[in-house]
Write a structure and sequence with these properties.
The structure holds 2 protein chains of 2 kinds.
Chain A (H helix, E strand, L loop, with lengths): L2 H4 L12 H12 L6 E4 L6 H13 L7 E11 L2 E11 L3 E4 L8 H14 L12 E6 L6 H13 L4 E7 L7 H4 L3 E4 L5 H15 L7 H8 L4 H14 L13 H15 L3 H16 L4 H15 L2 H24 L6 H12 L1 H8 L5 H4 L6 H11 L6 E5 L2 E6 L9 H15 L6 E4 L7 E7 L5 E7 L1
Chain B lengths: L10 H4 L12 H13 L5 E4 L6 H21 E4 L7 H13 L18 E4 L7 H13 L7 E4 L5 H15 L2 E2 L1 H11 L3 H15 L2 E2 L1 H8 L4 H13 L2 H13 L4 H14 L5 H19 L4 H16 L11
Parallel strand pairs in B: 1-4, 2-3, 5-6
Helix pairs in contact in B: 4-5, 6-7, 7-8, 7-9, 8-9, 10-11, 10-12, 10-14, 11-14, 12-13, 13-14
Classes of the chains: A alpha/beta, B mainly alpha.
Chain lengths: ~475, ~325
């Protein structure tokens, strides 16, 4: 058993951090009555632990006997039936589910499944606890429709059902839902608290901790208790007895991102951009969410940049995370993950480019081209059907020069071009278009073409 | 409802006015509706206004008062956002319901029971657009239908709010000093439902005597010191300091949307900041708010706001070398 689970406090009394909140929660359920609750706070702060301990407080040890169910639901939505598969954890008195797993169909989960569950009152022989508890994870990821649907459900079935909502950021939960719940903010534990917990675990495990070791783990943990305990256990597996200067390994993806940051800082050239792009892809392929990549990259860059550039870089990072989120909303078919990943990758492509933009003279973007010989053949092959295309070969670089008006052809030709482009993007082959009109080079603009949100591509052209 | 469970009902439900005339502060609406009750004649009505001002309450109350508990089921159709309200539902359910005519007026058990039915479409603004169009179309083809009479619900004034709150405190045996009372009305901003929820939460957590500090901790308002610290960091012009403060806000789990609105208050009230700088800060606050609604990352948005605020306050250049 991982230490994270082994030393998870089982009851509200055992809580080592958030004692005050635990005490309040105990009072809250003392009279067998409890309002709807909304727990919010950063990850690794102990929301789930508190919720489970709270359930135990309400229902006794039976709350821990949970079974995992994979249920299929058929929902009749007028003209069609929707099949939904949902994993839920349930005990006699509570059900836990993550409705956002259903993607854009989360509305149906709220409207049908949750309502159905909320309607049925549990039969208790002692006639005591006349309600059951529904735990909904990640409510901040629910769509607006689903959240709207939730609000009346919360009122209507409040006699037979209590909802415990759990999320990272309460800004993304609509006001209507927040005002119907008792909001409980769970802050991330302070470094001192983390040190205390680590020392406690060390004592229980019978380990010798060199002085300052726990403090170093706590410092690296970003105030996430879960992470601190996990890296503590990693250190234990790696080397015991601990030495006072033992390295605490960072996550490998974080290492990788800091590498990217170093790359960006070292050299600002088209070639480097191409390399960085490859690395970003690598991260995306390993399922690191783009938002997290961007955040971490910003974190790393902020350490290195001079004060003036910090403002700009942080502005663009903020600007582009919005692009991800709107993209996710529009991406109706979450099953089509690969597609989404690809489009995110293409958007992300703009990220390194804007960082570079601050440093390189615009002219060098003009000839930002590929330096792989074999692509040339491929390019020739694919571009044959298109009119007025020039492929420029010079110094082992290839420039594809397309007439500007090609972009304005709405019909099949452009579509074909687009599909080809996407197939190139899929492979290891990268592509940048240089489009040059007959006029002289005046400057460089970046435009994006959004056809259906599936592909975004970057076109650099000079007008 | 089973009587055993009465105590576990949220107070919002428990103290929902049952009669139209009990609805607080909406005199105009109440007057029209009381008239309706007497004449048993009623236009289509559209209630609108900020949350927690009594729209749903009024609609339910009038339906109950018109028909009484017995006929209520057959005469009133309540649809809210928790029901599927796609175009099909509107087509079939509402039409079916509306198509069956009801018999002539008979007074039953002291209720007017007028010869028409009521459809309560709660949260109509969250219906799909198609369904809305279809719904209004179905209204228009009915010969009786004319436009909806619009009723605006005003945000509750502090006095009304206080009197309602005090009434509940009386009933529940709570002690609330005047400071706590004014805090409660200021944090709930005219939303009675929110005020009652906060009150119940605080009562559950802290027992029967509630101070204004307790209410603040329940409501999720960010302590003034935290907001001031961030503002001061922005003023100092030191990016790393601001970054540290932003990190702190996120780790403490304060909702960023709340942070933005409180920061806004601080900026607007600051005397030593020229109008132009204020305007710049407000613009960046507005942008960040919109992005948050779109689901952007909280940390990055707050950092962006901090950076913008800093540039405005310290007269750093506003424009970047490259724009999209």
């Amino acid at each position: 058993m991982l230490w994270v689970d082994k030393y998870r406090p089982k009851t509200l009394d055992q809580a080592m951090v958030h004692q005050e909140i635990a005490l309040n929660l105990k009072k809250l359920v003392a009279e067998q009555d409890c309002p709807h609750l909304l727990f919010y706070g950063p990850s690794g702060s102990g929301k789930k632990t508190l919720i489970m301990a709270l359930l135990r407080q309400i229902f006794g040890p039976s709350a821990e006997k949970v079974k995992v169910e994979n249920k299929n639901w058929k929902i009749d939505a007028g003209s069609r039936t929707i099949d939904l598969e949902l994993t839920m954890l349930s005990s006699a008195n509570h059900v836990e589910l993550s409705p956002s797993d259903a993607g854009f169909q989360d509305r149906y989960i709220v409207q049908e499944i949750i309502k159905e569950m909320a309607k049925n009152r549990p039969i208790d022989t002692k006639g005591k606890k006349g309600y059951k508890v529904l735990i909904l994870n990640e409510v901040d990821k629910l769509s607006k429709e689903a959240q709207h649907s939730l609000r009346r459900t919360m009122e209507k079935y409040s006699a037979s059902c209590r909802l415990i909502l759990c999320c990272n950021s309460s800004s993304k939960v609509t006001e209507a839902i927040r005002s119907r719940c008792l909001n409980i903010r769970i802050n991330a534990p302070s470094e001192e608290q983390i040190i205390k917990v680590i020392e406690f675990i060390g004592k229980k495990e019978g380990l010798q901790l060199p002085s300052g070791f726990a403090a170093r783990i706590a410092e690296r943990s970003n105030r996430s208790l879960r992470r601190a305990i996990l890296s503590f256990e990693t250190c234990r597996v790696q080397q015991y007895p601990f030495t006072s200067n033992q390295a605490i390994l960072p996550m490998d993806w974080e290492e990788y991102i800091s590498e990217i940051a170093t790359d960006i800082m070292k050299e600002q050239s088209p070639k480097r951009l191409f390399e960085v792009r490859g690395k970003v892809y690598e991260l995306l392929i390993n399922c690191i969410p783009p938002e997290i990549i961007l955040k971490r990259l910003l974190h790393e860059l902020l350490k290195k940049l001079d004060a003036e550039l910090k403002h700009e870089v942080c502005h663009w990072a903020a600007y582009y995370t919005t692009a991800f989120s709107t993209l996710n909303d529009d991406d109706n078919d979450k099953a089509d993950q690969e597609q989404a990943m690809r489009s995110i990758g293409c958007v992300l492509d703009r990220k390194p480019s804007f960082i570079l933009k601050g440093h390189i003279p615009p002219f060098s973007l003009m000839n930002m081209v590929l330096d792989v010989d074999r692509i040339c053949c491929q390019v020739h092959e694919h571009l044959q059907g298109l009119p007025d295309c020039n492929i420029w070969l010079k110094n082992e670089q290839v420039s594809i020069i397309l007439p500007l008006d090609l972009l304005s052809i709405p019909g099949t030709q452009f579509l074909g071009f687009r599909l080809w482009a996407s197939s190139v993007l899929l492979g290891e082959v990268d592509l940048l278009f240089c489009i040059r009109t007959m006029n002289d080079v005046l400057g460089v603009h970046v435009i994006t073409i959004e056809q259906n949100h599936k592909f975004h591509f970057l076109v650099l052209f000079s007008a | 409802m089973a009587p055993v469970l009465q105590s576990s009902q949220p107070w919002v439900e428990k103290y929902r006015p049952k009669q139209v005339r009990d609805v607080a502060h909406q005199d105009e609406v109440v007057r029209v509706l009381t008239n309706t009750l007497e004449t048993a004649n009623c236009p289509h009505m559209l209630f609108y206004g900020p949350p927690g001002t009594g729209k749903t309450t009024t609609a339910l109350a009038i339906a109950h008062q018109l028909f009484g508990p017995e006929l209520y089921k057959s005469r009133v159709l309540e649809l809210n956002a928790s029901d599927d309200r796609g175009i099909n539902v509107v087509r079939t359910k509402i039409k079916d319901f509306a198509a069956v005519a009801v018999g002539s007026a008979q007074r039953q058990g002291g209720y007017p029971c007028p010869p028409f039915k009521i459809i309560i479409l709660d949260e109509a603004d969250s219906m799909t657009e198609d369904a809305q169009a279809c719904f209004f179309f179905s209204l228009i083809i009915e010969p009786l239908a004319s436009r909806c009479a619009k009723f605006r619900f005003k945000p509750l004034s502090d006095e009304i709010m206080s009197s309602r709150i005090l009434h509940i405190c009386d009933q529940e045996g709570l002690n609330l000093d005047s400071e706590a009372l004014s805090t409660l009305s200021s944090i709930s901003q005219g939303d009675l439902r929110r005020a009652i929820t906060y009150l119940q939460g605080a009562a559950r957590l802290f027992g029967s005597s509630i101070s204004s500090k307790d209410l603040l901790s329940v409501s999720g308002v960010i302590p003034v010191e935290v907001v001031e610290a961030l503002y001061a960091a922005c003023k100092s012009g030191n990016f790393d300091l601001a970054n540290k403060e932003v990190n702190n806000v996120i780790a403490e789990g304060y909702p960023v949307s709340q942070m933005l609105s409180q920061l806004f208050d601080v900026v607007v009230e600051a005397d030593d900041v020229p109008d132009e700088q204020k305007a710049r800060i407000c613009k960046s606050l507005a942008e960040a708010d919109k992005r948050l609604v779109d689901g952007a990352d909280e940390y990055l948005q707050l950092l962006d706001v901090a950076s913008n605020t800093m540039r405005a306050l310290c007269n750093m250049p506003q424009e970047f070398s490259f724009e999209t």
